[in-house]
Amino acid sequence: MSSAEALTWFARHEIRLAWREWLAMMTGGGRKRKRAVIGLIIFAAVLHLPAYAVIGRFADLRMPLDKSSLIVITATIFLAWALMLSQAIESVTRVFYARADLDLIMSSPVLLTNVFSVRIAAIALSVTAMALLLSTPFVDVLVIGGGSRWLSAYGVVVAIGLSAAAVAIAFTLVLFRLIGPSRTRLVAQILAAVIGAGFVIALQIAAIMSYGTLSRFAVLTSDAAAAWAPNADSIVWWPARATLGDSEALLLLLSFGLMLLGVVMAIFSRQFAETAIRVSANTTPTRQGSRAAVFRTGSRQQALRWKEFALLRRDPWLVSQSLMQLLYLVPPALMLWRSFADSSTAIVLITPVVVMAAGQLSGGLAWLTISGEDAADLVATAPLSASRVTRAKIEVVLIAIGMVFAPLIAALAFASPLQAVVTAVGVAIATICATAIQLWFRVQARRSQFRRRQTSSRIATFAEAFSSIGWAATAALVLAIPLAAAITGLMTAAIVAATWKISPRQR
Amino acid sequence: MNPAEQPSALQVRGLTKRFDRLAVDALDLTVRSGEFYALLGPNGAGKTTTLRMVAGLLRPDAGSVSVLGIDALVDPIAAKQITAWVSDEPMIYDKLTPLEYLAFVAGLWGVDPKRSEPSARELLVSLGLEPHLHERCEGFSKGMRQKVALAGALVHDPRLIILDEPLTGLDALSARHVKGLLGERVRAGCTVIMTTHILEVAERMADRIGVIAAGRLVAEGTLAELRQQNGQNDTSLEDMFIALVDVEAAAA
């Protein structure tokens, strides 16, 4: 086989792997793939409705635009880029740490630089393909409402996908050089989790500080932003112009994305191979643990709780997720702080944000403690009934959630005691429901499989999300329109009850 | 108490488990107290399934399991209190140090820290893990992880130790450490039941050997008794094993 044939063959192999990984993620690894794919297509079609609600009114926009519109479009494109960057960083670390084929590839008689060039291209392709897929409903809505000129938005998605992949690869490899394989994994996981959210939260913080509102558009459409922004012919607006159908800007953007990826491939392909060798040779360097006395007097459940807390504290995923949840809590906390000064009614917005965050965090924590048991046989052979083991694990989730949210609720009590009570009850119900759903759908797994938890049961994933959203909405409505709260509360309770009814524990 | 009056360490009667096919077929097995018992058999013979039912990890479809006179199906907590289970895949936590892991196991079994801490340190030292007491297990080799799991199984002083392929992945020195530690426990009155594919280990260490095939016990006894049953006094355990499982495979 010639070198070119070998590369083509390897590219096909990479695309096949990426396709199967994606399919497994979308279908939960189930065998009824055809049905799952049809379901996904229907889901994508349905997504056009919310896309229309969000973006439909912008379909008539045309160049030349005023500065405020240019800022909003550019910021939205930058947010999409940040999210793609986050996805690309995650993909790069997965190639290094999770693929089991590095030994095989590196021991094969092929030029590693070429092979890893293909792998870099495959990462860029998969990130871009995923972005295209997610952006399709939005672009479709714009095309239907505003004409074919909006098709150029697909080109913009491709260009920013390529550049995000290029930056992610360069960034991750530089991190490897600077802090080593083990720390890179942790830092990359944390960054991947917070990059996308960080941008939105920064805008919200700016909005709160300047205008006392949680809306990020308040900053983007402000006179101050317009005054600070460069002129309309600036290079900064190329992505916005390209999105609106400026073919010259689109070509330049695509060329820039391709060139950046090419440069990264040329510079970093060799390093990619060296880094892969370093990772496979030394994935987990020695890390010193605590030297404090670990043998304690206490009950068996206390031993279990101690173990769970120790593992949660040392879990990189949890560190990144907690940081993200804490980041999400920064804007409401700031609003709370401002409300002490000007008694703003916008403080009501804190409640749904806190309840939603509690539901999401408790779902993840519950999976880690209840399903993610690395020594399942050990715990199962311990002289402790299964119900006491489960109870100890649930207690850990409740204590952890209490520790994260109690300070915020206590601060809220000073501003509005009633709202604090409603928020506390909302947090408790959202936490209990998310934990219960994880309990009903538990599947024994290793903690390192956390990334796949959402694919193991689509029903559990959606039920957990709907439960958190439902209780967040209910808590907000209790404060604003109590009658509507009764309706959303009943609807959410019905969703949770239906989830219990169809769960494997009940069948 | 007269040894003859002592309850058997393990008494299994009519133990049956079916998955897609019959994995364990009305198995009867008795292991005496203070005995080193090796359970041999080809892949898929039902060894691990049998031991997982004894350890309380699987519920049998039929039959009874008695651990030192305790009905393990009626009172599993009491049976688990005196039993330890070590599988071929080490069950440890990457983010804990060996000492923290042993403290957790001792806590689960309710062992007094005054007793468990020195015992844990002694076990880890005897297995050559002294330099790694405070390192997290995430960077450990499979052999080191297996040794930590074994130390965890021994830290609560079990009276019945069940090991499924415990020597898999261990180097010669580590395997010798483990064999030495198990030998000491047996001399102290503990009972050890072990599955292994390393016939030399069974030949050298076991008081009695059971051969299981297609979910049934097809031969049992000391090495000499097995040779006698087989009618070949000078044959090796390997030859006898192959002959026994070949006969079973042909019969199946």
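The beta strands of chain B are 10-18, 22-31, 36-40, 62-67, 70-71, 83-86, 160-164, 191-195, 208-213, 216-221.
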